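Please describe our next protein:
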Amino acid sequence: MTLTLNTPSLNTVSLHDHVLDGEAERHAIECLLNCYLREYALPRNEANLNYQAQDLPMSLRQANARCISIRLPSGRLIVRIDRCSLLGRCHYLSGPYFKGNHQSWRPLSAAELARLLCTPLSGAERVGELLQQIANSLQITRTFLRHSRPTEATDSLLASEQHQLWGHALHPTPKSREGISHDDLLACSPEVGARFQLHWFKVAPRLIRHQGEDPRSTLQQLSGRDDAYPCHPWEVARVLADPLVQRAQQQGLIEYLGPLGQAMYPTSSVRTLYHPQMAYFMKFSMHVRLTNCVRKNAWYELDSAVALTRLLRPVMDALATQQPGFRLMPEPSATSLDLSALGTLEQAREVTECFGIVYRENLPHADRQRYQPQVAMALFTWDRQGRSICRPQLQRYADNTGLSIEQATLDWLQAYAGLMLGGVLYCLFRQGVALEPHLQNTVIGFAENGLPSQVWIRDLEGTKLVPEIWPAERLNALDERTRSSVYYSAQKAWQRVGYCALVNNLGEAIFHLANGSGSLEQQLWAQVGDLLHVQSARLDHPTELRELCAGAPFPSKENFMTRLMMRADREAGYTWLPSPLAMLEKRKRA
């Protein structure tokens, strides 16, 4: 009797999991195809975004179906889409079909597609590593879909941090997390609404080093002790296995206390933790590769975060008057342990990096209540039913103002892009400061009627200085390694800012705001063009902006090729995308 009663329930769960696995597979395929299109096929004229031939798989032969075709060395790919943006970003309605030379059409899984796309581009070792990471990302996405639940958070910032199931839409491995067990993944990942205690060590006070503001009151508030120092649960095994830490334990300088104190919430970056009542976000080290990078706090990054906050205080003050509504989130403190007396400099730096914490100022409670902030990446993405999350927000603004949804969308982007571009371009061309305003680094606050009214840019790790405006003598308090880590050439600074602001951020925003309407997408990009002309005039027409307004291509970071070629993120290459602004100008003249 028991077996009979339970069988339908088991079958239902199995069917539900099968559907979720299919969604994870579909998103993995979409990421791979969009990366390959943008970085490889479109620049080489190997893609047809409106394929009209009769030779199609049977399942794609519906009337009015729009398909794209991609030429490969070994054959041809066909996929059905329902929209393609001016930047070549597609939304797919079918899985990919491949037809090899002298073969018939066959459907491809995500793993088969990855192997087909990657193998001609690099050697076996590099391809093998990327294929493993793609498989890892897919499996983790499946896990998150099975264990995610509707948010119960009333804190808008926390809710947006913790429910970004899909991640970076144009990255081949958006959810890869190497070397993490299933249980640890569920215990500490924001996608499943995790909250957890830190692991703590009783540490001799002379071993603790802090730069900038003194964060010890926050550590005491978290741990309930005045002699404890934390690390992330995913880092504790590495810490306990370290020979210098073991030596310090033997000498009674360090004692492992285990997990204790108040629980913290992981944010969308995974290693940065949040608690609404704490003064700081806490950015921990973890020797885990997330997407492209191993997310440790290098010793010089601990130095540079605090140094940049100090150096940029006058810039932050200037922004308050020059670009009201646009703010940076300071990182005024960093801490770690110094065990250099117990071993070599290299050994001590390993410990410093394992224990390194960067402290980012939390948004004031009054600001969180007033502006109901959300991470931009949480808005410009899909929900689990395939709907753009920003659409209800736009509808609320339209309802509040009595505007049509189209006009509300135009007003919404005008407000958001005006704030974001105004601040980012002012920082680069007036102050020589290159921010990284990609979707995960951008927090949007709203007026009471739902219109964007505040933009915060966070994470100074990606913030760089242009040496022509910040010569070495302005940075003489930094050692040479730290100083070199905060510099970008003027060209590289523009590439990173242009990519983050125009392609990663506004490109994805417009894709979701337009909701498949080609005419609305054109109007939204025309608005961006007008804003760029205004900013160019305000900033005395710097060369890069003048060329951009004249139709120069957009710089687009190569996430797919960077991961395939095992390059550091700082050394990423760029693809130049045809400008939507130039396309619109061409259509006006036609």
